[in-house]
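Sample pair:
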Amino acid sequence: MLAISVVVPTHGGARRLPETLAALDAAASPPGGAEVVVVDDGSEDPVPPALAEGRAHPVRILRHEPNRGRAFACNRGIEAAAGRVVLVLDDDMSLAPGALAGHAEAHARAGPAAGVIGRIVPSPDHFTGRFGRFLAAEEERRRERMLATADDVPFALCLTGHFSAPRETLLAVGGYDERYDRYGFEDIDLAYRLVRAGVRLRYRDDLVAVHRSEHAASFAVHCQRHREAGRMAVRFAAGRDDPELEAVLRVRSGRPPGRLTAYRAVVAASQWLVRALPAGPLRDGLLALARIKVASWEFLHVPDRLVHAGYHVVRDMHYAAGIADELAGNR
């Protein structure tokens, strides 16, 4: 059995994959060997077979139609993987040379199965401008929280764009939940079920992947994704009466966790307003106006602290809209 399989789910990633695969070519192979499984999730521009040729590690390209979402693509890759360990890697991540062997080594030690969260470093070439700096600062705060809990990371911090676990452990909890057919929460749902199955999540700051996101400069895309995430949050919460989960998802309360401050009061009030408005032009118009207003601050002499707070508030308004959409059954 191979030591590790790298599963790369992709949709529309034909332009991103060459750089991702080139970084994997430069990665040292662990004892026992490695392979790469690219899963093309119904891309309109299919991944060309030639991308698999002449690689340092064997590359297989799987394809299905139509587009079924990241959860489905990850599951197909996990099922097809020949490695004892599966490393899930997004198609816009460049793995550092020692990280592939590092993930395999992290699972080679005796002891209970664990999930390993690798470090994600925002690429300075992609995370530009005020909004890019906001996203990079958010990732750094997430990193600081994981460093503080490195041997037992809370499930809510586990994003699986750079994540490994034993293949059999992933299969034992049912893999990714394929109800998540839009952006958001398929990875945190997986982490939630892993933790409840007794699997500890560990953070490894020395295992690095550089994130080359194409959307790091687009606040509008970010907001749209969070509206989709709101819909997925409702699916995550369904049938689970768990206060810890509600504190993360805020499906019922809409209020950010923690002590009530002026900022949290603004967030809660803005989310209440979005949920109170009927679906359609009124709600969508309010969201568009809020996006445009905050995006315009990029070019004004407004302190970064206020601009970043604005990004948070408007993003959460879109999240609240997604929750309302899903609860109402709107498409």
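The chain has a mean pLDDT of 93.
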